[in-house]
Sequence to fold (466 residues):
Amino acid sequence: MCLGIPGKVVEIRDGGSLPMALVDFGGARKEACLAYVPEVKLGDYVIIHVGFAISRVDEDEALRTLELLRTIDELALDQELGAEPAQP
Amino acid sequence: MKYVDEYRDSEIARKLVDEIHRITTRPWALMEVCGGQTHTLVKQGIDEALPKGVRMIHGPGCPVCVTPLEQIDKALAIAARPDVIFTSYGDMLRVPGSTTDLLSLKARGADVRIVYSPLDAVRIAVANPERQVVFFAIGFETTAPANAMAVAQAASLGLDNFTVLVSHVLVPPAMTAILESPTCQVQAFLAAGHVCAVMGWTEYEPIAERYHVPIVVTGFEPLDLLEGILMAIRQLEEGRAVVENQYARAVKREGNRSAQETVFRVFDVGDRTWRGIGMIPASGYHLRPEFAKFDAEARFDVGDIHTQEHPACIAGQILQGTKTPLDCIAYGVLCNPQKPLGAPMVSAEGVCSAYHAAGRGLAAPTAFPLYDLSRPNR
Ligand code: SF4
Fold:
């Protein structure tokens, strides 16, 4: 219950008093409430906890983290060689 | 799946393990607070791939495990009433109370229903006006926005057959309690990313400063955990102790303001008892007086509850990080996921169940990690 998972908003629905969406989790689809992430648009990724989106996944930050992780051994090499570490 | 698979890349995982080995010069003890993170660490063998002397202590961050026995017994007493439809997240059904669990009660005819979201419980209440619908509102800061919204919805719909049995716990006071303990061995924390997605991390800044512990807000995939560990060890090695955010793609410093607003409209902070740990001041949520009519404890008189834990279970010490499941004589023998004696064996986020699923200390391994991190390259 406590695990949140990222999913893609594939349909925004009018749930009466609450904004709802259909969210795709790599094939499995479930309804979720968007009340806490009013900025979310169709196609965005959100983290879902017990049927509520609690956060929008930030694409730029996601790419930055992956870029940084991919170059981690180059950074290490630079540091071993005494170079200035690159700005994160 | 996007935002999942790329954070499981085995080549990058290997690089991160190497980098952790490269920068580590001393033994360190780190605690991952969240049970979901414990599960990934143990399943992927990440804790075993770390440099010798670097230890992951598993924290109390499994909401199912820390829900006090007394609350479970109250849930059982309420669920047994013929006028009640008792609704709960699925993980709670097999948690042992003093004498039985919700699933056994259901098998004997009680109307116990699993819901995925608390809004489902509200829907059940709308559809069954002649019955009392009770929702077991448990969890950390991650489920609080959903549970609060369910109460707010029930209020705006004017429902008088919907109540919640609240047992909400909060992470920062538990971290403080662990740090205050005279036997505390934790030198750095991986804070639970999704708790911070809701609450932000400003509450952690005074903790990092006061106790001089690095705190790294960390995600849940293997690469997130490895990077979180790397960032924490880097701080330890450099003698720094600040809050850093590994999980920038989902967490902002201020958290989710709109979720916080609803949480604090419905809930107040108050003392909470944690199963196996005891009372921690200001460590949980209670319904605010304006929402008192939605309090199941007030609506149903459950009488005197006398709780009794299984004598073999050492869950309390495990949740505080002073013991591991391998220290428990019942582990894997009397206690297993099919027949749990204590809460940490029930939930997927419980330490005992994580160890059992990975075959730790069992004759035959029951699961195999995604990749082999056990032999560092260098
Ligand atoms: S293995 Fe079972 S009995 Fe032992 S501490 Fe864990 S839950 Fe309790």
